[in-house]
Design brief:
single chain, about 270 residues, alpha/beta, D-Maltodextrin-Binding Protein, domain 2, five-stranded mixed sheet, 9 helices, 13 strands, globular
């Protein structure tokens, strides 16, 4: 019996030590959900910065705007980096979640890109225009179309604007609401498309080639900073704080400015 107890005790001790090692390893790891470009690319630079402090950054890439928040709320990842605050607020309202922003990192100007029509001056009556179909990004696209004189929105619609808020549409634009990740693929079928900065980058579009972009002093530019998001209660997590410091490092800032030529603007 004593021999059996000794074996059991030794086994439990080994198991306990093994678990302790695993937990110790996790204490130096931060898992972040992101869309591929530019967010995962930027995180790969931050990964090297974090490694100098002995922290491992694991990047999980997603190709849509929903799963990263789901994974963050469910605890599958520690944080995500891919969205702006209006989108996060809308997600929380729609899903009853408590995700919070902990840092502003960069801004990606929305752009109007040429499809079948090469310039805004050539837009004809009834032209097809594709815009994002999610609430916050559609408003942003419509504000840019308004800034370029193509439509007029109801006074006060602002960042909550939808197609229903268009009060003047002199060219009878056929505005088509498309899932944001698919917008670049519509270019061969529409006259122009208003595309999120990250999806434009993924599609190989250059901000310098856009027919128009948001001005840096626009309402959208001040509102749509790309943020680091965690579940409420995790704001003070030391690895999350280290992640934010790495994302705001000189190495990351230099990478943004050199790599994206104005398509990604650091906010630090």
């Amino acid at each position: 019996m004593k021999k059996l107890l000794l074996i059991l005790s030794t086994t439990l001790l080994a198991f306990s030590v093994g678990c302790g090692q695993a937990n110790s390893s996790d204490e130096n790891k931060v898992v972040v959900a992101a869309t591929p470009a530019p967010h995962a690319e930027i995180l790969n630079v931050a990964k090297d910065v974090l490694a100098k402090d002995g922290i491992e950054l694991v990047i999980k890439e997603f190709n849509d705007y929903v799963l990263p928040d789901t994974a963050t709320f469910n605890g599958e990842v520690d944080a995500n980096y891919y969205q702006h605050k209006p989108y996060l607020d809308d997600y929380n309202a729609q899903n009853g979640t408590d995700l919070v922003s902990v840092a502003n990192i960069h801004y990606e100007p929305f752009g109007i890109y040429a499809g079948k029509t090469a310039s805004l001056e050539e837009i004809k009556d009834g032209a097809k225009v594709s815009v994002p179909n999610d609430t916050s990004n559609e408003a942003r696209a419509l504000l840019l179309l308004e800034a370029e004189g193509l439509i007029t929105l109801r006074e006060g619609a602002g960042l909550n604007a939808t197609k229903l808020d268009i009060v003047e549409n002199p060219k009878n634009l056929d505005i088509q609401e498309i899932e944001a990740a698919q917008l670049a693929r519509t270019l061969s079928d529409v006259d122009i498309a208003v595309i999120n900065g990250n999806y434009a980058i993924e599609a190989g579009l250059k901000v310098n080639d856009a027919l128009a972009i948001e001005s840096q002093d626009s309402e959208a530019a001040q509102t749509y900073a790309n943020i680091v998001v965690v579940k409420a209660g995790n704001e003070e997590n030391k690895n999350v704080k280290a992640l934010i410091s790495a994302l705001k490092s000189d190495e990351v800032k230099n990478f943004m400015e050199e790599r994206y030529n104005g398509a990604v603007v650091p906010l630090f």
